[in-house]
Design a protein that fits this description.
By secondary structure, this protein is of the alpha+beta class. The strands form 8 sheets. A 10-stranded mixed β-sheet has the order 1-18-17-16-15-12-8-10-6-7, with helices on both faces. Strands 27, 28, 29, 30, 31, 32, 33 and 34 form an 8-stranded mixed β-sheet that branches. Strand 19 and strand 20 form a beta hairpin. Helix 4 packs antiparallel against helix 5. This is HET-domain-containing protein.
Length: 698
């Protein structure tokens, strides 16, 4: 159960600090023979925001802190899986995959036996550095120790844990130990690659095909259950017909229900021209729909798209979905309609290819990678084994990589049933069974079940902990709010599929990041209590990644046909967090604020407040957009929740939305307001003794 998992470090889903408390819900070169890579079953049996000054009207106070964040990234397991390794070994040229020339090592290293139980290496750094001048292994260990240990440390102590070597003070392995297929020992040691195949070799695609075949056979949850096609697909052809063209699936029924979807970064579109489909192409480039249905010129595709076509063909799949080609771009395009189908596109894909190492459409991802350093040592029977530079780091290579800072990618990962990630260091595969590395290491993290869940968010909803269920959506939205978009007005669209899944899971209606779980629930009030982030966020190594600061209102163009209300964080650019009442201590003010049936506005009671004479730490109000002395509109409040513990209302902590009147939006004589912030204050500062003003908040 997720509520039994130990929290071991800064976040997996979130890479941030601890948050406020969360209360429970109320109520309810080829190594293969030619062509072998394409026989998939041959070896198988059945946005960061700049720091800004605090708003002039902000009242500082310390909020309650009880951490209910989800379990974290640093708790990685590396289970041995040599059954899969043997299948790969049967498909590759072992002479090239596993070097047999032993490394030049010093006398001290020749005495080491990494294969003994309880192996420990302990040495002074100065001695290790001197020996590294002539010893391959000492050099490897010294470099790893420098990266993984305290810079002031004079000694290094490395222990073997299964097939990994770790420094006690570092949660991640610093070296890996792999065996080749000829070394047979009872010790649990991963059969793995000390060197990586060329990304365009048949050996490379054999690994990818075996990942998919293994998943097909063993993971029922990763199977695509529906056969709904995207509006358009790219036909990449077959072995006998290398056609490349766009098809509209309502006109031409695909001959195979399987298709690949691409996740990629567009990059700076002004600097790197994109390959887009348009409705009418007056440029003469023949990028209109009808021309591309006749032929997509492979030679004109940017490198990332060519690599995707090549990979799709190598995986034996005929159809491909790329957003900029399969969605008509431009003011007269069909983005608004197609954006609503992203859940079906990514969850219906046979596999998603994620071009993590490509910064734009022209970068490509099937490029040589830096080879890991390794030492070849003599094992039992004279067979080699390998001590290698540890390059299995899914967090750094994928989760904290530049592509995963893009807004659309979070949803693509969550909705995909399985994904192949092409990173700068190596290629990874993620499905419901965990994460596989190109080195043949298998990785698992308890929270990989969250966004890696092929039926997202089923696994996290199995927990009996309501706090964790709430934390799931809050952490997800906090993370999403800090991501980067080429177009800020994509913000509501790029999470629509996730939002739909969450609404089903929570049995709630909702819109724009706000849930409506009915009169007996509390998700509505909790989801309203977001505020501009006042915390810097950290990555898994403790480095600051996202900075707090004032938000910026998004200007949605008319063609988007959307009006995001002020009470939604999707109306702004900037990171958010939640102002949560202490655990189990709040009554929700259902008589003060409620949603309209269509979630286009909120019905609310507007009240005055005056913080004159306040004491330190009594109140904390955060404005969404930085206010200045020239802003003359009077700020009022709407009560969302009240603390339970105090006898009198004046002493209760009131959690509020801050609002201002919108005179130009008067609705049939009824007052209309917009949200401008959120926070909390004691009731004595709120005009509770007089009736409030009924109004609508848009």
């Amino acid at each position: 159960m997720l509520d039994k998992i130990e929290v071991v470090g800064p976040g997996y889903l979130l890479t941030g600090k601890s948050r406020s408390s969360i209360g429970p819900l109320d109520g309810g070169t080829s190594l293969l023979s030619e062509g072998a890579a394409f026989k998939r079953n041959a070896a198988l049996k059945p946005n960061s925001i700049k720091q800004q000054k605090a708003p002039l009207t902000q009242i500082h106070a310390r909020s309650y802190k009880v951490d209910h964040t989800l379990p974290t990234l640093k708790g990685w397991d590396f289970p041995i899986d040599n059954e899969f390794g043997e299948m790969v070994a049967a498909r590759v040229n072992s002479t090239e995959a596993w070097p047999r020339e032993f490394s030049q090592i010093c006398a001290q290293c020749r005495e080491l036996n990494f294969l003994t139980a309880g192996f420990v290496f302990d040495e002074e750094m100065t001695i290790l550095q001197k020996r590294s001048e002539t010893c391959t292994l000492c050099r490897l260990i010294h470099e790893a120790a420098q990266l993984g240990a305290d810079a002031k440390s004079q000694r290094t102590r490395i222990e073997r844990q299964s097939s990994k070597l770790v420094i006690t003070s570092n949660p991640l392995p610093v070296l890996s130990i792999f065996r080749g297929p000829d070394l047979k020992i009872p010790l649990p040691l991963q059969l793995g690659f000390p060197i990586l195949p060329n990304p365009r070799s048949s050996a490379f695609f054999a690994i990818l095909n075996l990942w998919l075949s293994d998943c097909d056979i063993n993971h029922q949850d990763c199977h695509v259950s529906t056969k709904v096609f995207p509006t358009r697909l790219i036909d990449v052809g077959t072995y006998t017909d290398s056609r490349l063209c766009l098809i509209e699936t309502y006109e031409e029924q695909p001959t195979d229900h399987r298709y690949i979807a691409l996740s990629h970064a567009w990059g700076d579109v002004n600097r790197y021209p994109t390959f887009n489909t348009v409705r009418k192409d007056v440029s003469g480039a023949k990028r209109d729909v009808e021309s591309l249905k006749e032929r997509i010129p492979y030679e004109e595709l940017p490198a990332t798209f060519r690599d995707t076509v090549d990979s799709t063909r190598a995986l034996g799949i005929r159809y491909l979905w790329i957003d900029s080609i399969c969605i008509i771009q431009g003011p007269d395009g069909d983005f608004s309609e197609e954006a609503k189908k992203m859940e079906d596109v990514y969850s219906g894909a046979f596999c998603v290819l994620s071009a993590n190492r490509a910064q734009n459409q022209h970068d490509g991802f099937l490029k040589p990678r830096p080879q890991p350093k390794y030492a070849t040592l003599t094992g039992p029977g004279g067979h080699p084994y390998y001590v290698c530079q540890a390059i299995d780091n899914f967090a750094e290579d994928v989760l904290e990589g530049s592509l995963n800072q893009r807004g659309w990618v979070l949803q693509q990962r969550a909705l995909a049933r399985r994904t192949i990630y092409f990173s700068e260091a190596q290629t990874y595969f993620e499905c419901g069974g965990g994460i596989r590395c190109e080195t043949m290491t298998k990785m698992h993290n308890n929270m990989a079940d969250f966004l890696g869940d092929p039926k997202f968010p089923t696994k996290v909803m199995r927990t009996e902990s309501r706090a964790l269920k709430i934390s799931a959506f809050q952490d997800l939205y906090q993370t999403y709010s800090r991501l980067i978009f080429t177009r800020d007005d994509d913000r509501p669209f790029a999470i629509a599929g996730i939002e739909k899944r969450l609404q089903i899971a929570y049995k709630a209606k909702g819109a724009y990041g706000i849930f409506d779980d009915g009169p007996g629930g509390a998700l509505f009030h909790r989801s309203l209590l977001w505020k501009r982030s006042e915390e810097d966020m950290e990555d898994s190594r403790g480095a600051t990644r996202h900075q707090s600061g004032a938000m910026r209102l998004i200007n949605f163009p008319p063609e988007r046909n959307i009006r995001v209300p002020s009470w939604s964080w999707m109306a702004y650019v900037g990171g958010i967090e939640y102002t949560d009442p202490p655990l189990g201590s709040a009554d929700w003010a259902k008589d003060e604020i409620s949603p309209s049936l269509d979630m286009t506005f909120l019905n609310a009671v507007i009240r005055d407040f005056n913080l004159a004479g306040r004491l330190k730490d009594e109140a904390h109000l955060t404005y969404d957009i930085e206010r200045t002395a020239s802003d003359s509109r009077r700020t009022q409040c709407v009560i969302v929740a009240r603390s339970k513990g105090e006898k009198y209302d004046r002493d209760k902590t009131h959690y509020v939305l801050l609002v201002t009147e919108e005179r130009e939006l008067m609705d049939r004589g009824e007052k209309v307001y917009k949200r401008v912030g959120a926070g909390f204050m004691p009731g004595k500062y709120i005009a509770l003794h007089v009736p409030g003003i009924p109004a609508k908040i848009y």
